[in-house]
Amino acid sequence: MISVNPKGEVWVFAEQHEGKLEDIGLELLGRARMLGDKLGVSVGAVLIGDEVRGLAEKLCHYGADTVYVLEHPLLEHYQANSYGKVIYELVHKYEPQIMIYGASSCGRDLAPRVASATKAGLTADCTDLQIGDHESKDKVYKNLLLQIRPAFGGNIIATIINYDRWPQMATVREGVMPMPDAIGTRKGKIIVEKVHLTHDELPLEILREHKREKKVNLKASRIVVSGGAGVGSKENFRLIWDLANAMGAAPGATRAAVDLGFIDRDHQVGQTGTTVRPSLYIAVGISGAIQHQAGMSDSQKIIAINNDPQAPIFDIAHYKIVGDLNEIVPKMIKAIKARV
Amino acid sequence: MTYNCVVMIKQVPDTKRITVDAMNDDGTVNRGALPAIFNPEDLNALELALEIKDKFGGKVTAIAMGLPAASAVLREALYRGADDAILVTDRRCAASDTLATSYILSCAVKKLDYDVVLCGRQAIDGDTAQVGPQLAEKLNIPQITYVEELISLENNVITARRNVGNGWQEVKCKLPVLLTVIDEANEPRVSVAKRLMKYKKARTPVEVQMQLKQDNPAANENELKQLAQAKVDQLEEKGLLIKQWDLDYLKADLQWCGRDGSPTKVHRIQSVVLTARESKTIEPSEKGIADMIHELISDKTIS
């Protein structure tokens, strides 16, 4: 761990694969910028790989004041041990006060490894990050990172803090923080660090990899039509597809619908799926568990269709339709076709 | 060649079955009001360990950290095929975050002879997926996270396929290693009737003490102690003793345990209060729906 260092920077792990920056790192820079401005400290991006310094400028456009470039042939492919080691060393050298990672498969593999080595705190899957004070019995801790996340299956919202074993670290899922605007004229400092690594720090041998394109791009869709367990069966999920097709929308689903095998996991909206902010979100047969809401409550308009008038989804819906989805959805398709 | 597996299991409240009754007035959750279950992905981790044992031989040891009641999941691990079960329990473990938990678990694992350490990817009460990688770091061994398939295990080298969300990755690694296992990896076997009949009598020392106290309300402390020791010896002889380790036995450094050992602290807990929005109730009639669609087209929500 490092000591409490209120002058320390706010850092973002800028995830890249095969020379391409992941969106999540850029999204996090937007929030890091806000936190850094509030604290009056600069924002750093940590860029790791082999021959990746060409990506540093883009990180400055998205809000980094400083980019720490860690390059080495052995860093070409991500692994927890090698990346963890170089981050550990960098953290001890510069003592940032905050470090944020994407809660991607890579970030969730890496951040706990770093946290354990550093003996620092780490909060997973935050849905919000703010700066605030914490009062305990005899002391007030000023300007801490408030790490806000749903807990206990999403039934409560917990705000977690770490006042003594820094850096304060958190992971955030992709899509939770809005992508900031890039400013092409924005410049920053690029610091290329010396890296020492041996093969001992690469215990894994990567034999084969297979990238799979997502079957649907939920984030880019203006309209999302999602079905929940209430749809009843895979066959009946046809209704969701039909409504989505009629509206030019992307079909989404709750985790329950995915677990029941109604639709592929790529379509899952929510805390452990994709976070969406469409112009219109249509929730069909969805009760509205908080984990699901975490992934769609920022939609501009929400239509909820459910036969249970007490379903929590109605609390956040702009249009409430209580009734049998098997009758309502065909009526909607008909109404849309009549207008177009 | 045989391989010894150690599986980390957790008893968790069944968060899927949460109801209003399980919420306290201040918005916190009353864990006692929820059924306690075997964390689902830990069952997949146990299954993978049992598959390794079936194929190559070796021993499967299950470790759970928690309150004395957590021995229930250890018994379940025994029913399904684990050879040995250890409960790590100590009041000083209370309020441990993932870092402190992984430290305490590492102290327990270090006492064992292991080749493969297995964890479920994450537990449903926190969904953090942090203890696996943190435990690997504390043991100073590599980790293979999100294992969906064990491809081979020979000459102390493991090959496994990881599910990395947008695809998969096959990796090879020398033992010892820590694996975190996902639910797609396998279909956990059910309890074996013969094992269930045998191990339903398995107990931890603390369970033995509690039972004796209940059965002999008149007995004094000393008598109870003697009775308990005799019963524990008897269980051990029959292979029915669930080992119980505390922090003294683990020689754990207390500064890294429990609340003191946990850098993350709770600042605030809020029950989920849904903000009511300005909303319209639409009649589920053709006209009601057509009017709504018309409104959405005219305000350009639908183009």
Structure description:
The complex is a heterodimer of chains A (340) and B (303). With 340 residues, chain A is an alpha/beta fold. Chain A has 2 domains: 10-201, 3-Layer(aba) Sandwich (Rossmann fold); 223-339, Rossmann fold, CATH 3.40.50. In chain A, 26% of the residues lie in helices and 30% in strands. Chain A has 9 helices and 18 strands. Chain A has helices at residues 23-39, 56-61, 80-94, 105-118, 238-247, 255-259, 290-293, 313-316, 325-339; strands at residues 10-14, 16-17, 20-21, 43-49, 66-71, 98-102, 122-126, 128-136, 139-151, 156-161, 168-172, 189-193, 205-211, 223-227, 250-253, 280-284, 301-306, 319-322. Chain A has a 7-stranded parallel sheet with strand order 7-11-6-1-4-5-12, with helices on both faces. Chain A has a 5-stranded parallel sheet with strand order 15-14-16-17-18. A 3-stranded antiparallel sheet of chain A has the order 8-9-10. In chain A, helix 3 (80-94) packs across helix 4. Chain A starts with 9 loop residues before the first strand and ends with a helix. Chain B has 303 residues and is an alpha/beta fold. Chain B has one domain: Rossmann fold. Chain B has a 9-stranded mixed sheet with strand order 9-8-7-10-6-1-4-5-11, with helices on both faces. In chain B, strands 2-3 form a two-stranded antiparallel ribbon. The longest helix of chain B is centred in the first third of the chain and has 17 residues, at 40-56. Chain B is globular, with a radius of gyration of 24 Å. The mean pLDDT of chain B is 93.
